Amino acid sequence: MFEKVKEILIEEMQVDPEVVTLEAELVNDLGVNSLELADLILLCEEKFDIEINDEDIHKFITVGDVVNYLDQLASDN
């Protein structure tokens, strides 16, 4: 799942591949702004055919948070 999220960040959001780690903070380390975060959510929803609750978006601080959330959704289905 990490590789898939990393691919989205690199290809769709032009994030430097060298800085994408599980511990990297989306805003502070990767420079993702709120609009780009919304784009990331939409891209993940489309790519993985899932729906992410708006209330859960505030939980996405690091790349690892996104990966763990997506892993949890995948295991629930």
How would you describe what is shown here?
By secondary structure, the protein is mostly helical. The chain has one domain (2-76): ACP-like (Non-ribosomal Peptide Synthetase Peptidyl Carrier Protein, Chain A, Orthogonal Bundle), CATH 1.10.1200.10. Helix content is 53%, strand content 0%. The chain is built from 3 helices and no strands. Helix 1 (2-13) packs across helix 2. The longest helix has 15 residues, at 34-48. It is globular and about 30 Å long. The two termini are 15 Å apart. The relative contact order is 0.20.
Beta-strand percentage range: under 5%
* Counted beta strands: 0
Q: Outline, from the CA principal axes? A: globular
Q: Describe the main β-sheet briefly.
A: none
Structural class: mainly alpha
CATH class: Mainly Alpha
* Number of spatially distinct domains: 1
CATH superfamily: ACP-like
End-to-end CA span: 15 Å
Provide the succession of SSEs.
HHH
Calculate Rg over CA atoms.
Answer: 11 Å
Range of helix content: 40-55%
- The CATH architecture assignment turns out to be Orthogonal Bundle
Mean pLDDT: 93
CATH topology: Non-ribosomal Peptide Synthetase Peptidyl Carrier Protein, Chain A
Low-confidence parts: none
